[in-house]
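Quick one from the shared queue. A colleague (R.T.) flagged Na/H antiporter-like protein, putative as missing a structural entry in our internal table.

Convert sequence to C-alpha cells.
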Amino acid sequence: MDEPAKGNDAAEELETLSQNVLFLMMLIFCGGTFFMTNMSKIPLPYTVVLFLYGIFVGFFAHWITPDVATSLGNIPPELLFYIFLPVLIFEGSYAMNVHALRRVFPQVLILASVGVVVNTCLLALPVACFFPEWSWYSALLLGSLLSATDPVAVVSLLKGLGVDSRITAMVDGEAIMNDGTAIIAFKLLLPAARVGCLKDSTWNIILKGVQLAALPIIVGPVFGFIQSYWLRHATGGIVKTCITVSVTYVCYYVAGNIIGTSGVLTLFFSGTFLSFYCPSLFPGREGNLVYNIWEFLVHLGNTMLFSLVGLILVADVVPTLNILDLIIIICMYVAVIMARFLMLEILLPILNLFPYRMSQREVTLLAHAGLRGGVAVTLALAVLQTGIEAGVNILKVTCGVVLLSLFINATTAEKVVTFLGHKRKQEHRMIQMEYAMDHLEVVRQKALQKNKNNVSYRSANWAAAEAYVKEHLLNPYKGMSYLREDEDTVVNRLLMKAFKASLWRQRDENLISETVVLTISRAVARAIDSGELIEVRHLHRRKPSPHVEMTEELEARLIEENLKPLWVTVSEIFLGKGYLEWAHVRVQQNAFMTLLSFARCLDEVNPIKYQYAKNELHGRRIEAWMTSQREEVRRVIRLLYETYPAATMCIATSRAVLRAVNELRKGVEELHHYHGFGAKPTAALEEMVQHMYEHIPRSWEPPRLDNELVIAALAATPLGRGLDPEEINTLSAMGSTKNLYEGEEIKLEDKLFHVIVFGSLKPKLNRWTASSEGEYGFGCVIGLERFVVPPQLRDNQMNRWVVTSTECQVLCIAYRYIEPFLWEKSFASVRAFWRAVAVETLLPTLEHMITLPVNLTQSSRDHFTSIMMSGNPLIGPKECNAMDWSLQFQLCFYIRGSDTTGLFCNGHTAPCYVSAFFARRLKWEDPQVVLYAVPVNVSDSGYVPWSQSANKSPRGSFMPQRSSAAEADLSSAMMLDYIHHEPSSTYAEAADIFSSILRGIIPGENQPRSFKIDPPVADVGSFDGVDACILQNPENFVTNVPYLNQLFLRYATVLEGLCIAALRYVRVPTDPLNAKHAQYISEQALEFLMVFFNELTILSAALRRLSRRDTTTSSFAHGVKRQEKEEQLQDDELEDIRMIGKVIMWHRVAEMHGAFQLRTMVLQMKSLANRRFRYLSESLRALAEEQPSLKGADSVEELQRILLDLNP
C-alpha cells in the first residue's frame, strides 16, 4: 500500500510542479507583452528589458518557488533550441532583404566561416591567460561560444536605425550563418574539451565539418522548394501559416537529427530560398494574417528565450559569482570587442575584393554590432550539463559577456550609428518623405475644415485641436543626414518605387503569379540600384549574338527563356525538349502576364510621373521614357498575341475571371459593412467567392466561335439587348471588323454604324454623341444618330473619333444590310433598333433632366442608359396618337416624322425632347413618325425614374422582354432610394404642377416667398383671358419655318427645366444637390437667353426691313394696318431691350453672388413667350406663303440669307 501512495504523491507533486512551471512561463510572457506595449516609454532595447525581466523573475521564483526555478534552470538546452530557435531563424532569414544580401553575400560567407575561426582563435588567447588550468580545447570552446553574434539579438536591432540596407543585410546574414558555424564548432570541440584531446581523426573531423556546413546548402533549398510548392497549392491564411510553421520545425529536426547537419544553416538557406524565389507567397489579406501570426510567434520566442536565459543566469551563475569573476567577465567583454575588431581588420583586404567595399566606419559599426545573446548562453548551459570541470566558469563568462553586450552595445547602438554617420537616408528617401509630409498637411487641413462644417462639433476647441495635430505631425526623418544623389537618379528611383508598389498591388489582387513578381521585381531592384528607369528589354537580359538579327520570333523566345525555370532547362538536357510541353505553355503564359503587368505599372505611374520632376528637362525625359516604353510593351504584347495565341487566350480569360472575383469580394465587404450582413451570412458569401477563386482553371478551352467577342459586344449594345441570340449572330455576320491602334482616327460615314468590340474611342468635336464622360468602350454604338439626323443639321467636321486605348476593334455594319433584316424579322426587332437609336441620340438630353442619386455605384452613362432602355419607342402615327398620356407621366422624345401642326417636320427637325407643356396636344400623321417615351415621376427630386413598386400601366412593363442584361441594368437604375413628396404619376397631375409654377406658385409650399420683381407688362400672366402660357398650346406659336420651330422647342425645354429646378429647390432647399441643380439649370438658361436674344434681334431687324418694303407698295388701308404693326414691332423691340437688360443683370448677379432668381426668370420667360411668339408666328406664316423657300430654312444663317435677299 505504501508504494501506490508514494506513486500518487509523486504524481500530485509532478502535477503541481507542472502547473507552477506553466504559470511562471505565462507570467513571463505576460510581462514581456506588457513591456512591448510600453516600449515607447522605456529607454532600453526590448531584448535588454527581457533579459533584465528574466533575472527579476529568476530571483522572484527562487524566493517563492525554488523547485520551479530549479526545474526551469535544468531545462535541456537542445529543448530550448527545438522550441524557440526554428521560428526565430526562419523568420529572420525570410524577412531579410535578399536583394541587399545578394550584393554582400561573399562578405557574409567569409565572415561567417573564416571570420568565426579567426575570432575563435583570437579569443582562445585571453581565455588561456585567465584560465591557465584549462586545455586549449576548452579555451577554443569558449572562444567559439563568444564568436557567434546571436541572430535573436541582432535581427531586430539595426532595421529601425536608418542604416544602409547592405550593412544591415551583412550583419543579419552573418548573425544567422555564424551562429550555425559556431554550433558546428561547438559540436566538434565539445568532445575534445571533455577529455582534453581529439578522439577523431583529422579526416573524420573534416568530413563532419563538411557534413554540418555543406549539406544545408542543398537540404535548405529542397525544403524551401517543398514548402513553396505546398503553399502555391494551398489556400487560406490559416492553412498557409500552419504549413510554414510545421515545415520549419520538421526541417530543423530532420536536418539536425536525421541527416546530421546544421539545423540553423538549413533553416537559413530555406528561408532565403523562399524570400528570393518566392517573395510574394502571401498576397492580400491572407498575407496580413500570416505575417501577424509569425510576428506573434517571434514575440513569443524572443520573450521566452531571453527571459529563460535571465532566469538560468540567476539559477546557475549568481550563487557562485565573486569579485574575480566580475573582473574576468569585464576583461573578456573587452577582449571580445577587440578580437572582433581585429578579425575584421585582418579580413578587410579580402572583403574589399568584392563590389561592396567597406571603410573603417563600416568596420567599427560591424565590431560594435556584434551582440551576443541567448544562443551562446544556451550552448554554455549545455556545456555545464555535460559535467565538464570548466563548465561553471564557461557559463559565468558567457552569461556575463552576453549581459554586458546587451547592456552596453544594444543601448549605445543608436548613438554609435549616429556618431559614425550611418544614420542617414538616401536623398530620394528624404524627398519622398518631404512629399509625404506635404500631402499629409493638405489632408490635415481638409479634415479639420470638413469637421468645422459639422454642426455636431460646434463646441470643439478648434485652436487646441489644430495645435495638437500640427504638433504631432512631424517628419520622421527630420535631422537625419542624407547621401547626395544625382537629380536624375533621385527622380528615377522614386518613379521605380511607385512602379514597384503597383506591381505588389497586382500581386495582392492575385492578378499575377509568383514568377511574374520575381521577374519584374528583380529588374526593378536592378534599376533602383543603378538609378535608372526600367525598360522592356530588361525583361529578357540575354542578348543575341551581334551577327544575329533580332526578329520577332527571336525576341519572343528570349523572353520565354528568361522566364523558364532552372529545373525545366536541366530536365530538357536529359529528356529532350518534347516531354515538357506543358511547362513551356506555362512559361508563355507568364511571359504574357509579365507584359500585361508591366503595362499596368506604367499606366499607374503615369499620373504621378511629374510629381518629383524638378525642371522641364526632367519632365521631357520622363515623358520620353513613358511614351517609348508604352509603345514598346504594346508592340511586344501584340507580338505575343500572334506568337502564342493559346497562352494569351488563357491568361486573358483568367484575368477576366480574377477581376470579377475581386469585385465580388468587394461586394461582399460592402454588404457586411453597409447593408447589415452579419458574420455568418458574410462568411457563407466569402466561402462561395473563395471556392470560385480556388477552382479557376489554369487552362481554358478556346472560343467555339472566332467572333465570340464580337457577338458579346453586339449583345451588350442597346440594340443587341432587344434581339434574340440567333438574330445577334446573323447581324454580327453582316458586318466586318476593323482593328485600330492608339491615336488613329475613324471617320463616321452616312451608310455605316460601328460597335466597339474592345478598346475605347473618344469623340473628337462630335456634338451628336451619347457620352458625357468622353469615352466609349465595349458594347457601345457610334454612328446610329446619322440614321435619323438630317444631313443639313450635321457638321461634317464633327464626325471623327480617336482611339484612346492601346488597341481597338470595331464592328462596322451597313444600314442597307440591317434595315431589311430588322424589318423582316419581327416588330420586336424594329423596336430594339429604335430603342438603340434613342439611346445613341437622346442620351445627352436625358442627362440634363434626370436627377443622379447620391449613392450611385455605376457610371453616369450606364445609369442614364438603363433609364433610357426602360422607355418604349412609339412607331407610326397610330401608336403615337393612341398613347394614353393620362395614365402615367412620361418624358416624350422626338426621333423623326411630322405632326399635324407643323411644329415637327421630317427631314428638318433633329431628334430632341418634346416639352411636357404641349406633348400630349400633338397629333401625328406622318407614317414615318417615331417617338420615344420614358416613364418618370415628378417629385421633389425633379424627374426621377419610375419606381417598380408604383402602380404600373395596363400596357405592362416598359422593359425589353428579351434581354436579362437590360433587366439587370434597369433594376440597378430603378431600385433607388428616393424620397417622394406628393409625387405626380399622371400627365394631368404634372400639368397642374407646371401650371402652378408658371403662375409663380410652388405646390405644397408652406408660405409664399416674397420676390422683388419688376412690374409685369399688361399681358403678363394672361393669355387669351386665361392665366396660361402660350407654350402650352403649340397651335398658337407654330410657324412654317423649321428653324424658328426648333428655337421655340429649345425655349420650351429651357423653361420646363427652370420649372423643375424651382420645384426641387423651393420644396427641399436644404438638399445641396437641389441647390447645385438649380445653379446648373439657371446658368444654362442664361446662356440660352443670351443666344436667343441675338437671334431674335436678327429676326426682328429682317422683319422690320420687310415691313418697310410692304409699306411703300400697299394701299392706304393696308398702310394704316401696316403702320400699326410697325409701331407694335417697335414696342416689342423696346420690351426686348428691357428683357435683355434683365438677363444681363441676372448674369451679373449670378457671377458676383452665385444667386439665381428662379421665380423671376420663370415669369419673365413666360411673359416673353406670350408677348412675342404669336406675333412672330403670324408674321412668318404670312411671309412663308409669299416666300416658300422659308419652309426649308433650318438655321439662323439660312433664314437670315433668305430674308435679306428679299428686296426692301
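The chain has six domains: 71-422, 487-643, 648-701, 707-865, 873-935, 974-998+1025-1108+1119-1206.
The two ends are 143 Å apart (CA to CA).
Added to the table.
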